[in-house]
Structure formats: C-alpha cells, structure tokens
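Example 231.
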Amino acid sequence: MERVKTGVEGLDGMLDGGVPKGATFVVMGSFGTGKTTFGLQFLNQGLAQGEKGIYISLEEDQESILADAAAHAWDLKPYIDGQKLAVIKLEPNDAKSTIVRIKSELPDFIKGFGASRIVIDSISLLNMLFETDHERRTNMFNLSQMIKKVGVTCLMTAEVKDENPLASRDGLVEYVSDGVISLRYEEKHEKNELQLSLRIIKMRRTSHSRHITPYQITNKGIVVHEGVEML
Ligand SMILES: Nc1ncnc2c1ncn2[C@@H]1O[C@H](COP(=O)(O)OP(=O)(O)OP(=O)(O)O)[C@@H](O)[C@H]1O
Ligand SMILES: [Mg+2]
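Predicted structure in complex with magnesium ion:
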C-alpha cells in the first residue's frame, strides 16, 4: 500500500511508514496542542516533495496561517505564488453562504486544483455551521466521499470534548475518518509542567503503534519522541 509521509518527525515510523494514500484522518486535541502546526507540517512535507496542497481554514486568514508557518521556519508564500498551495478561508459567521460554498464551489475547486493533500482546520467549526446532527452527518459523509473520490489524502483537525479529550466535540468525525490521532496535555505535578502526549487511536489498514508517546512543538514543528516513555 502506498503511504503518505506526514512530515512529523518520529510519527511516520509509528504509522508503518505514513498514512495510507487517499485516507482521511483527524488530528484532535484541545487548544494549543499543535493541531494547526501539524496540518501545516503535513502540507509543507507534500509541497517540499513537489505535491500540491489545499488548506481550508475556518479560523485564521491566509496572512495568519503564513505567519504560523513562519514560526516553524516554513516559508509557504512561494508555494502560494506558484499556485502549488491554495488557502481557502471559510467564514464561520455566515453559515448560509458558507454552506453554499461548501456544497457548490469547494468540490469543483478540489477536483480542479490537483492537490494530493488537503487540510481542514477545523472540522469542528465547519460542523458548527449546520444546525442539526442530521445535517452535520450528511455533510460530513458527502464531503469525505467527495474527497475519497478525488483520491486526495485529507487531514482534519478537531476540537475535543471538555470531559473526554479522546472524543471530538461533535462525536462524528472519528467514525467517518480512517484515522484518529489524539494530542493532549498531561499534568506532571512532580515536574511542575504540562507535557504533551500523542496517541494513534486508529488508522485503518495500518499496523500502528499504540504507545502514549511524548512530543514537543519546536521551531521546526512537531517532533514525536518515538520509543520514549512518558515520564
Ligand atoms: N516556534 C515555536 N516553537 C515552539 N513552540 C511553538 C512555536 N510556535 C508555536 N509553538 C507552540 O505551539 C502552540 C500553538 O500550536 P497550534 O496553533 O498548532 O495549536 P492548535 O492546537 O492549533 O491551537 P488552537 O486550538 O488554539 O487552534 C503555541 O501555543 C506554542 O505553545
Ligand atoms: Mg489551530
């Protein structure tokens, strides 16, 4: 099976080489756990290999996303200028017209752009555009079917439930996705610090690690300390 390298140091080994090509996977975690960083790192890896990528944002505009990337020394501007990277900002406050864009414009754009990687940051905000669970479910099903058909590998970020950091806020995306990676904080009172830990909860068609593995967010992006036990 062809695998797509995430570009996250230490993680591809835990995924038997990477995520299956064409898979849809979710990176979930609470605020500040590095979801956006992960998404940018995933796109940057593809761009550096000569692939095209699409970043769909519901929070930050293009300028802010480029600044996030620059904090990790990824210069994405040339890729935008060279039409290798497209940043699409969807407006979460204007549900009606955004839903129209998602249903009409977006599928054509994704089909036409020729991207091999796509990031949706975040699917939680996208889902909030819809009023009922039924609409959310239908939209997510249609979106993931369309992405699967195009054959693009898709990373979605998701916020988590306050009471359960292993479940997404709307509890839908983890079932629709081929893979779930959880990012979270662990309180280490004895060391007086918050440690970050990563878990691969599922990845279809992959013999993956189930270790709770420490990671750091550095100026080169996310570094997963594969093989290192949590202290
Ligand atoms: N250059 C850097 N070096 C080290 N750590 C950094 C650097 N840039 C950002 N960080 C860390 O990464 C965190 C932000 O990560 P990121 O924006 O990817 O998280 P997020 O999960 O997307 O958060 P949110 O839910 O708020 O969107 C910062 O709060 C900071 O702790
Ligand atoms: Mg973010």
